[in-house]
Amino acid sequence: MQPFRFAVQVSKADSATSWRNLARKVEDLGYSTLFIPDHFDDQFGPLVALTVAAESTSRLRVGSLVFGNDYRHPVVLAKEIATLAVMSDNRVEFGLGAGWMSSDYRSSGISEDRPGVRVSRMEEALTLYTSLWTHGTASLDGEHYHVTDAVLTPPLAQRPPIIIGGGSPRVLGIAARHADIVGVNPNLAAGYIGREVIESTQAEYFDERVRWVAEAAGDRFAELELQILTFFVTVTNERQSAIDGLAAMMGVTSEQVAETPVALIGSIDHMVETLQMRRERFGFNYVVVHEAEMEAFAHVVAALTGR
């Protein structure tokens, strides 16, 4: 099992000063990483925001969960990430996804191909990123990208860790074979976070997907970090009441709320115990929470980081 580490996902702040202060707070609270999404709605542009966050801190890692592959050509983004890695002393984690939020495609005018095409394009892009960051050059005559003798500048001493998350056998297989960090995610294709997420992410869902990752990874499975993105986190000594309230609001049972790994509800001690049990069962060592709960949850971070 990999040691625990924790991250915070945030989208924006009220000002440049607030953003810098937020990054410093995330670092001071003991989190490993600050993540930002990559959408065209109400959030900061990830590349500039991550650069400012890295410049404002000394230990904090930065990354996007996840860069939408269709939004930038891989040779272009590889250069930007390499520059950020150099400027931050290699404190970058690179999350890559095939794109899933239909509103991004509608608002930008980018063509939203069917999922299989988007995943194939992401897989080709991943080949380019890996070659550029590992060897400094890349060529590919693929179905989606035609790249000839691309050269990476600035050169990198080490490749950024790659994060790929998903819930389908194909995407998790790609992640298992090529990523360093595998996010085992709910199906968010419809763009909602509510009843359907809880109903579809019971323990058996994750058992199956972790098995897919293990089968595809083979011998490298022990080297992988497994990441879980939480959606419902409440630090409270009134656990059952909080569970019942969320269940009523979402239209699901209290048992479903209590059992889904995308929720953490209870006291600090209970959360510590729960995360240890989930790591034992699923392998999840890399837990992502959101800004609203990061201060209360920092007690869990202090108790488990590195263990």
General description of the model:
46% of the residues lie in helices and 20% in strands. The chain has 307 residues and is an alpha/beta fold. The protein has one domain (5-72, 81-97, 159-304): TIM Barrel, CATH 3.20.20.30. Helix 1 (16-28) packs across helix 2, helix 6 (169-178) packs across helix 8 and helix 11 (268-282) crosses helix 12 (294-304). The longest helix is centred in the middle third of the chain and has 21 residues, at 115-135. It is globular and about 60 Å long.
Give the tally of structural domains: 1
What's the total number of strands? Answer: 13
Structural class: alpha/beta
Fraction in beta strands: 15-25%
Outline the low-pLDDT stretches. Answer: none
Report on the biggest sheet: 8 strands, parallel, barrel
CATH fold group: TIM Barrel
| Rg from Cα | 19 Å
SSE run: EHEHEEHEHHEEEHEHHEEHHEHEH
The side-by-side strand order for the widest beta sheet comes to: 1-2-3-5-8-9-10-13
Distinct helical segment count = 12
Tell me, briefly, the overall form.
globular
